[in-house]
Amino acid sequence: MNPFQRSYQTDQTDKELIQQILDGKKTALTILIERHQPFIYNLAWKLTGNSSDAEDLTQETLIKIISNLSTFKQESSFTTWAYRIAKNHFLNDQKKAPNIFANSFEELGTRLDAAPNTDLSESEKKEQQEAIREVRLQCLSGMLLCLTKEQRMVYIIGDIFRADHNIGSEIMEDANWQRRLNLN
User: Fold this and answer.
1) CB–CB of 3/171 below 8 Å?
2) 79 within a domain of the structure (yes/no)
3) One pLDDT digit (tens) per residue for the chain, 184 residues
4) Which domain holds residue 33?
5) Residue 107 included in any domain
6) What is the dihedral of CA 174, 179, 183, 184, to 10 degrees?
7) Alpha carbons 154 and 176: distance in angstroms, whole number
8) Which of 20, 88, 132, 175 could be disulfide-bonded to 25 (CB atoms 3.0-4.6 Å)?
9) HEC per residue, the chain
10) How many CB atoms lie within 10 A of CB 128?
11) C-alpha–C-alpha distance, residues 150 and 119, integer Å
12) Number of domains in the chain
C-alpha cells in the first residue's frame, strides 16, 4: 500500500476519523491505525532490514501517534503529521540496524562481484521467479543499509513510495530534502 498514491484514502476521511476518536469512538481508532500501519511497518522494515525490529519500531511509532493525537492541529495533512512522527522516531532510534549485508558500498560491490553469475533459461527464470524477487529485495535492503538513516528515509519516501517532493519535504521538515541524497 502506498499512502502517497492518489487512490489512497483522503485526509478528509482521516480528519473525520480523528474527530470520532476524540469523541470516544474506538472503532475509528482501529480504522485509522489499520490504514497507516502497513506503510509505517514497510518503512521501518526497509530501514532496519529486520522484521522483529520493524515490528517494534512500528508499535512504538503507533503508540506515539495515538498518544499525541489530541495535539494534531490539522495545520498539515494527518499523513504528513503521522509520518513525521515516524521519521523522527526512526531517525532518533538508538538501536543500531544490523549491517547484515555490508558495511559500505565497496564491501557490497565486492560481495556482489564474488557471487556466481549463471545465465538462466526462460523456464528456469519462471521456476526461480520468487527466489529472484527475494534476491532483488535483499540487494535493495543491502544498499539501503549502507546509507545513513536519514538517507534511507529520503530514498524510501521519494524513490520507492514515489512521494511528491512537497510531501517528502514536509515529512522530512526540509525544503531541500531531495538534494540530501543525490543518487542521480
Assistant:
1) no
2) yes
3) 455 554 455 555 888 898 899 898 889 999 999 988 988 888 888 777 778 888 998 999 999 999 998 888 888 788 888 888 888 888 787 555 444 555 666 776 777 677 667 777 788 777 777 777 777 777 777 777 777 777 777 777 777 777 776 676 677 776 454 455 444 4
4) 11-99+146-180
5) no
6) 140
7) 11
8) 20
9) CCCCCCCCCCHHHHHHHHHHHHCCCHHHHHHHHHHHHHHHHHHHHHHHCCHHHHHHHHHHHHHHHHHCHHHCCCCCCHHHHHHHHHHHHHHHCCCCCCCCCCCCHHHHHHHHHHCCCCCCCHHHHHHCHHHHHHHHHHHHHHHHHCCCHHHHHHHHHHHHCCCCHHHHHHHHCCCCHHHHCCCC
10) 13
11) 37
12) 1
- pTM, rounded to two decimals: 0.54
The residue type found at 158 is: G
Residue 70, all three cell numbers: 489530541
**In angstroms, rounded to a whole number, what is the distance separating the alpha carbons of residues 42 and 49?**
10
Q: What's the chain's Rg over C-alpha atoms?
A: 19
In a domain, 134, yes or no: no
- Largest alpha-carbon pair distance within the chain? 61
Match 499523513 to its residue by C-alpha cell.
Answer: 79
d(CA 128, CA 123): 9
Grid-cell match 532518533, residue found: 92
CATH, residue 20: 1.20.140.160
